[in-house]
Amino acid sequence: MIMLNEESNFNVVDVLKLPQSPISEREPKIEQLLNKLRQLQQAKEVLEDDVREVISQRSTLQDEEDLLTTEVLKLQGTLNEKEETCRSLQIKCEDLEKESQRQFELKQQKEELLQQCSCQIQETKLKHRKIRMKFENQLQQLMEQHKNLCTVFAQKRLPAEVQSSEYNTEQLLKAEHQKLEQLAHLEEELNNAQAIEMQSA
Asked: Backbone dihedral region of 23: left (phi > 0), alpha (psi from -120 to 50 degrees) or beta?
């Protein structure tokens, strides 16, 4: 940065007070020196304006830099918060995935158990159906037997059945009486044979 102070200012009076030397054609004239001095002063003023503008711009840029630094710090804090929130959400997401997997496995187990229960129910129904059919067949047979018994032991046939039973009983008694007589006869012959054997001895 160009620094200018009051010591660098040229004054026309000071120039006029300088020792005068003989004027030669090669030396610049006073008027030319004054013009040159005015040009230098104008250039100095321009430079000072430029310096003031640069200083102002630097101050503005410094303010902007401070604002940007503050904004960066703020954004960095927000980024840290977002990253922490993201990590927390990732942990929650992992927990939800684990819970979802557990629920899925539990659902599969329940479905398998339900399928087993369904198969057992079907088997039980089939067994009951077979038992019911067997019972119905037995009931049908009993009904047929009952019908036959009703036919056999009908009121109309009862006297004939009684008479047949009495006849059969009489025949059995006669057969029994004959067997008893034959048995007594055989015992008598056996006794006689034993008595003869004893006499012979």
From this structure: beta
3-state helix, strand and coil shares in percent for the chain, rounded to the nearest 5: 85, 0, 15
Q: Which pair of structure tokens corresponds to residue 150?
A: 């009703």
pTM over 0.85: no
Which region, left, alpha or beta, applies to residue 44 given φ > 0 means left and ψ of -120 to 50 means alpha? alpha
- CA–CA distance, 155 with 175 (Å, rounded to integer): 31
d(CA 193, CA 186): 10
Token digits for 57?
């711009």
Residue 54 contacts by C-beta under 8 Å, 6 or more apart in sequence?
1
% pLDDT > 90, the chain: 36
Backbone angles phi, psi at 154, to 5 degrees: -70, 155
Cβ proximity of 4 and 44 under 8 Å: yes
Backbone φ and ψ for 18, nearest 5 degrees, come out as -65, 150
Q: Measured between alpha carbons, how far is 88 from 92 in angstroms, rounded to an integer?
A: 6
* Higher-pLDDT residue of 15, 98: 98
Could you read off the pLDDT of 133-184 as tens digits, one per residue? 888 888 888 888 777 766 655 566 667 777 887 888 888 888 888 989 998 8
Tokens linked to 46: 């321009």
